[in-house]
Specification:
Blueprint (H helix, E strand, L loop, with lengths): L2 H4 L8 E2 L2 E2 L2 E4 L1 H9 L4 H8 L3 H8 L6 H11 L8 E4 L4
Antiparallel strand pairs: 1-2, 3-4
Length: 92
């Protein structure tokens, strides 16, 4: 499968009754990938050179920089859509 195909739906705007539904980034795919790779939190942080505070931002669904996302992708040899996705913001 080509990488363009893998990431095709990563940005998807949803509409409900003509109004835009707010979306947020979820990193659940990253944590599933870590399980598949048998990689613990510390190993991920060391392998991708990210700080503990940045890692916990991801755990809490907070925003992180694209630089960090790219380092994770490089360290895990994957695409963005393999570590994150847009989901409906339940707080909206």
């Amino acid at each position: 499968e080509k990488s363009e195909d893998l990431c095709y739906n990563i940005i998807d705007t949803e509409f409900m009754n003509g109004e835009i539904v707010m979306l947020k980034i979820s990193y659940k795919k990253l944590f599933k990938k870590m399980i598949d790779l048998d990689l613990n939190n510390t190993e991920l942080m060391e392998k991708t050179n990210i700080s503990r505070s940045t890692f916990y931002k991801m755990k809490n669904g907070e925003n992180i920089t694209t630089d960090v996302l790219l380092r994770i992708c490089e360290g895990l040899n994957c695409n963005l859509c393999e570590i994150m996705e847009l989901v409906k913001d339940e707080n909206d």
